[in-house]
Amino acid sequence: MSSSAGTGSTTNEDGGGASATSRYHIVLVPGFTGFDVLGQIQYYPAINELLTTWQQQQYHPTNNVNNTGTVTSNSSAHRVQLHHFDSLPTSGVQTRADRLLYYLLKLISTNTVNRSSNDKIILLGHSTGGLDIRSVFRTLTQLDQRELLHSADGQFSIQASELIDIITRFVFLSVPQRGTGIANWVIQVTLLRWSFLGIGSVFTRAASKLPIRWLWSHTPSYGFVRTHAPGIFHASNDAFAEMNYTQFPSWQKIKIANAREAAAEFSMWFENMFTDFGAIDDLAFVKPEDRKHVAEEGWVSPAQITDQDRKEEEDSWEDRIKTLSFATLGTRPFPKWDWTKNAPVLHWWNFCHLWKLFSNYFFHDFLYLFVYWATASLPFDLPNVPGPVTVRNIDGEVEEVNLARWDNDGIVNTASMLWPNGEDTILVHGDHGDIIGHYKLQRESPRVAQIGSPREFFSYDIFGSKSGFNDERFQKVWFKIFEFATTA
User: Fold this and answer.
1) Short-list 114, 121, 99, 107, CA closest to 30
2) Whole-model pTM?
3) CA distance to 181, 255, 384, 475, per residue, from 415 (Å)
4) Pick from 6, 94, 228, 422: CA 20 to 30 A from residue 179's CA?
5) Which residues in 281-437 belong to E strands, given as ranges?
């Protein structure tokens, strides 16, 4: 499933090879979980509405004054379109990248991206989605530039060089450019992983016919999750309610159809995870001495290539691709831990360590506490880390942060996000879900109930990290992205 938003045209000439009629197509690539919309759960909630708000501000330049008091405007703002790409959950990066390539070819073959108008594509990836983007472009640059790329139906073809010319910018949001510790942890707990997927699959299949939400409310875990992991609680509750088609009378055909569709999507989502969990291997942190050279090994995850290959990758972007990187830094949830000495490594067999984990759940969201610990608990060794790191904040000011190897946003080590922009990386204080719009519990609009969804909420504070991320910070991040997409 995919969707688009944003229209318009102007008469000014733009930079980056674009013309006065060029449109800017921002393709939103999801992360590890791989969906654009799952049932009615949106991966990037509120981004379409935020684009409209930004476009309206640009359309009324008297409301847009810069630091010098000069009225500014962006003539290309109304030529921005958003495209929500539906990837594959947990599949290997190469598989996801191939799917993304076919999606881009489809946009061009259907004339959604118009070559005669010199339209441009901006690829935006969150988390694993950033690696998918890098993998697509690496594949394109390694091909003979005259080689024809064919669409999935074989009815359309384009030279690799032509597609490369259309792609002009990358935006990276919380991307594990050098891997992440939580992937190494998940690899070690195979039984726990398959147990989780098995339980999720059983519940998903049952939820279409049984009142799982009601049954869950009569179990001891219900109160604990509701109190100590409210974000995932409300998301799960909404999903269970959305899948149950037996709750509707037979004459409410549209509501029954929507519930069946949601149940099928969730079931297929879990089935995909069962059959291909390759992304976790592609996301694992690999020590510099163990990294593989692309030329010798064939395909290697972009997170695990050698420094030489990484330099060659950057060189292939030169004069073609501009990049914008955001790194997220979550709140440290272990207040009594001496962060200057070692990481908060907690071993299952050490009851003292376990108590340090569980005693903190009264003060933090338990899900965030758990995933933060899992990400921090394995070694993540990079040069110059730990130590002071120079970055920029969301207002463009230079900021020095004393970053530890295990600092993370709940899913990705922050130090892993600092490439390729280095000191120009924009540091955002927030967790892994905050930056894509899941930073607050926001009720769904009444119109959604009218079309047949029992969903209560539109977005969720999934990790509950208490980072202070708010509407203002969210708007600044995405306004900066829209400006970057449309300026030279």
Assistant:
1) 99
2) 0.89
3) 11, 46, 10, 24
4) 228
5) 322-329, 387-392, 398-403, 426-429
